[in-house]
């Protein structure tokens, strides 16, 4: 997939050596991370925000898309940046957080930033999606869990059950490789999230292999926090994290 958004001029000034891969969430679109991507671009970072396969078309197409295609799109974005930049970070929202964590387990990312990352389901029925997909093709949308009025992440109006099954496979795979994630991690967790349960963050804390993990609570946002009241705080706090980690990495290289 080609990068989405006006990011062709990204990667300039003192931050030009740093790349950021951003991944949107399940049934969503790059719109949920567009403001963050533009913020990073303005800071001079090289940014990639791919439209994940099965997204941006119809929920029926998403129902036919295996989870490894979602991950492959993120990995290709990383590989492209890694050829051009000395330091690459992985970041994502919701399912995109899981993809970023899996990327960190498989590639030498400098750090991971995850906003309300999904690793478990809030609805117990989702665990049976592999069977239910043959009975119920779709369920109501999980989109736009946003406290701030007037926001639209441009997600699907229906959630395909077959894709929920694939999401569960991604969650299980990512949970299994979390001990291989050794890069510093910054996690944002909304106090009120109607999509991803607290058990996801609890699982991340238990299994991640990184010695440096910070979980920051968001008190004024729902699930899609990158479009909510705390968005600017997320962007600024992520800037501090990126600058700190990249600075330490550069100092280590010089030493």
Give an account of the 3D structure.
The protein has a single domain (13-254), classed as Alpha/Beta hydrolase fold, catalytic domain (Rossmann fold). Helix 3 (67-84) packs across helix 4 (95-106) and helix 4 (95-106) runs parallel beside helix 6. The strands form two sheets. A six-stranded parallel β-sheet has the order 2-1-3-4-7-8, with helices on both faces. It has a two-stranded antiparallel sheet with strand order 5-6. Helix 7 (198-207) links the parallel strand 7 (185-190) and strand 8 (213-218). It has helices at residues 31-42, 59-63, 67-84, 95-106, 129-132, 161-177, 198-207, 231-254; strands spanning 18-23, 46-48, 87-93, 112-115, 138-140, 158-160, 185-190, 213-218. It has 255 residues and is of the alpha/beta class.
Short description:
Residues 20-233 form the AB hydrolase-1 domain. The chain has 255 residues and is α/β, with parallel strands linked by helices.
Write the SSE topology.
Layout: E1 18-23, H1 31-42, E2 46-48, H2 59-63, H3 67-84, E3 87-93, H4 95-106, E4 112-115, H5 129-132, E5 138-140, E6 158-160, H6 161-177, E7 185-190, H7 198-207, E8 213-218, H8 231-254
Parallel strand pairs: 1-2, 1-3, 3-4, 4-7, 7-8
Antiparallel strand pairs: 5-6
Helix pairs in contact: 3-4, 4-6
Tell me the major beta sheet: 6 strands, parallel
Order of helices and strands: EHEHHEHEHEEHEHEH
Stated plainly, the CATH topology is called: Rossmann fold
Low-confidence stretches: none
List keywords for this structure.
single chain, 255 residues, alpha/beta, Rossmann fold, six-stranded parallel beta sheet, two-stranded antiparallel ribbon, AB_hydrolase_1
